[in-house]
Amino acid sequence: MSNQSIYQNELDNLDQSKKFLQRENYSQMEMQLEFKKLVENYEELIDQVKIITKISDRLQKKLNKTNDALESSNVQLADLNNQLNKTIDQLTEAKIGRKAGTIVMFLAIGLFIISEVILEPIIDKAFVDQKYVGLALKLVVAILIKPGEDFANNYMLKKARKQQMKEQKEKMAIEDSKKKKKKKRKVL
Question: What tens digit of pLDDT does each residue of 56-80 get?
């Protein structure tokens, strides 16, 4: 339905009034009738505008409520997304912490075995009078467990974060290319 057909009745009334004004002579009675028609048409237009305005106001209120609901949902989604990211980070850190602890524990056990089997006999032969050298070596291995675990944990976390950043960049690049394709389709 074109705009002209919507307003055809009003356009016809306007044309009729213009034609009336172009006439040179008209009686008082004709003027009153024409003026009466104009007033009636104008009153009808005002009634239509009132109805359209009420409908428009209702639609605007619904749109505002919908926008508010969407905004609230977006805020909730952003909060949930932040919580999810924090939880994922905590799980990643816990997983990496377990791996680092396991690696350091096996390393400590290996060093302890090496010190007992290989180094202890050498130390006993070299330092016959000093029994505490072997014990000191074991103490050093025990003391290095926690810093070793921290070092391994930090190294593995850095590695995991680099991997996450790489995956995130790849994901963003894919999303950008999809957006560009959509824009191209809209242009075409």
Answer: 999 999 999 999 999 999 999 999 9
What is the residue whose two structure tokens read 């850095």?
Answer: 158
d(CA 71, CA 64): 10
**Of 143, 120, 116, nearest in space to 131 by CA:** 120
User: 144, exposed or middle or buried, with CB in 10 Å at 0-12, 13-18, 19+?
Assistant: middle
Q: Where are the domains of the chain?
A: 8-13+26-187
Residue 64 CA to residue 59 CA, distance in Å, equals: 9
Structural tokens at position 160: 């995991």
Model's pTM, two decimal places? Answer: 0.49
Q: Which residue has the tokens 């524990």?
A: 105
Picking from 104, 102, 100, the residue whose alpha carbon sits closest to that of residue 154 is: 100
